[in-house]
Amino acid sequence: MTTTRARSVQHFIDGAFEDSADAQPIDRLAPATDEVVSIVQAGGAPEVARAVGAARAAFDEGPWPRMTGMERSIILGRVAELIDRDAAELAALDAEETGKPIRLAEGDIAGAAGLWRYAASLALTMSGSTYTSNGPDFTGLVLREPIGVVGLIVPWNFPALILSQKLPFALAAGCTAVVKPSELTSSSAQHLVRLAAEAGVPRGVIGMVVGDGRAGQAIAEADGIDLVSFTGSTATGRRVIAASTGNIKKLSLELGGNAANVVFADADLEDAAAGVVFGVNFNNGECCVSQPRLLVEDSIADDFVAEVARQTRMLRVGQPMDRTTDVGALIHAGHLQKVTSYIGGAADEGGEVIVGGTRVTDGLLARGQFVAPTVIDRVGPESAAFQDEIFGPVLTVTRFHDQDEAVRLANGVQYGLANSVWSKNVDTVLQVAKRLKSGTVYANTTIDAPPQMPFGGYKASGVGREMGQAGFEEFTELKSVNIRTGKRAASFAIRAGA
Ligand code: NAD
Asked: 330 and 432 share a domain?
């Protein structure tokens, strides 16, 4: 059903918003109501080519890479202030298009502003190094330079936040960018691009092509792009790798996850139970660091699972804009179908569904894609519900005997993005943290991502890092400049060790 208030989402190319020349736009249905809320232009290779051309010109000839770090920092800081100014509007856009609870969307926008502020500070500190050990007549400079034009491809689950994990870091380094939000959640990106222009980011520095995978594919293939920073599923990440080989572009890939919460008997069990319930249900479970696998020491398992079940039953499934909602609507009907089929599959294999397990259709919720927060006990490690990224509010429970088994189970999936360990014994915490194959380990806590900590995956969860100094440096190249002073020695004399 189309409503009269459906928004138009357009490309932003060389400083102007525009429609596609001929492609049919994409209708975006709000997942909580099934009403069309946005009409999104469907971009492809022609729009990407023009946006890349403008970004290339802005990089090769424009002021942005030539500004001082201070000048760029001031503009990025101004964007953060404008995000604060428009926070309510941005949060409402993301809540409506993702189906996530408004309270969480507000947290995303506050986080996004924080990322622009943090990146503004990095613009001031971009630096290389100097080697005085190259010999008395040599000084070695390692220069850090912006890598060039970057393509930034963003998923739907944290639209404004994940764009802000990429764009301000690229801009801080002096890069220019072509952005592609998810076709399901493009409205906040359109608003952010507007704010960046209002803050003084020069024309052509940021381009945006909206649309589906065809626009993403064109960015991954474009020879005028030097780096693609992609966040999305591991399956699409593989396509991006294959498409990127033409000009051997650098890739930063933030892919799928399937985290475990490892709970030992000596943990603060009340705290751990609250963390487990939050870890799997946060953002409707549609979070790359979501923690859908509870691994619990068998001596406490029955009592602990009972407490987790009790807290899960208290969660409120509801409309995204209702401030009492804990779990909102899943992103679309196909995804709801996928999540419920994993629940059915686990039950068929002997898992015991002790909470939830079904779609929620009470009253107005019948129009949207709602599923009850679910706990499935006694799920084996060979089950698809244990191995795959379900991406919904579904917790599987698996028991372990000792630390070795816990680590084996936690690491026994293709992903390696994040895991949690719960124990009051510092030996256990550190031993397990070191043995877990994931880019992040939370100890006695759960999902969090401070902007100064690098974030990324081991194994099929990706390559490269976002945020932190390491995330900033992804957008740079190093150039070694070896400077000789004084007169050069004989022509073919090669210095020892050179
Ligand atoms: P997706 O892979 O379907 O889409 C991600 C983006 O890629 C979208 O903008 C999409 O339009 C685009 N795309 C689709 N086909 C493409 C192609 N062939 N070439 C280039 N781009 C293409 O992912 P999604 O469903 O939007 O997001 C959910 C996934 O993202 C989950 O797997 C989740 O774990 C992952 N994710 C990872 C992180 C992380 O930091 N590691 C963060 C959030 C989400």
From this structure: yes
Is residue 328 over pLDDT 60? yes
Residue holding tokens 């502020």?
117
Joined together, the tokens standing for residue 310 give: 């009790």
pLDDT digits (tens, 9 = 90+) for 297-326: 999 999 999 999 999 999 999 999 999 999
Q: Any idea which residues carry the catalytic annotation?
A: 254, 288
108 within ligand 1 shell (Cβ under 6 A): no
Assign residue 153 the CATH number of its domain. Answer: 3.40.605.10
**Cβ of 257 below 6 Å from ligand 1:** yes
Q: Which runs of E-coded beta strand occur in 16-70?
A: 16-18, 26-29, 36-40
Quote the number of domains for the chain. 2
Q: How far is the CA of 463 from the centre of ligand 1 (A)?
A: 14
CATH code for the domain of 433:
3.40.309.10
Residues 126 and 96 in one domain: yes
**What is the DSSP secondary structure assignment for residue 317, as one 8-state letter?**
B
Q: Does one domain contain both 112 and 245?
A: yes
CA 418 distance to own-chain centroid: 13
182 lines ligand 1 (CB under 6 A): yes
Tokens of 184: 């399901």
Ligand 1 atom with the smallest distance to the CA of 211 is 11
Q: What three-state secondary structure class fits 5?
A: strand
CB-CB contact of 228 with 243 (8 Å) = no
| Position 2 pLDDT exceeds 70 | no
- Calpha distance 226→449 (Å, rounded): 27
Q: Where in the sequence is the domain holding 225, given as residue range(s)?
A: 7-255+461-481
Grouping H, G, I as helix, E, B as strand and the rest as coil, residue 103 is helix
DSSP state of 331: S
pLDDT of 494 > 70? The answer is no
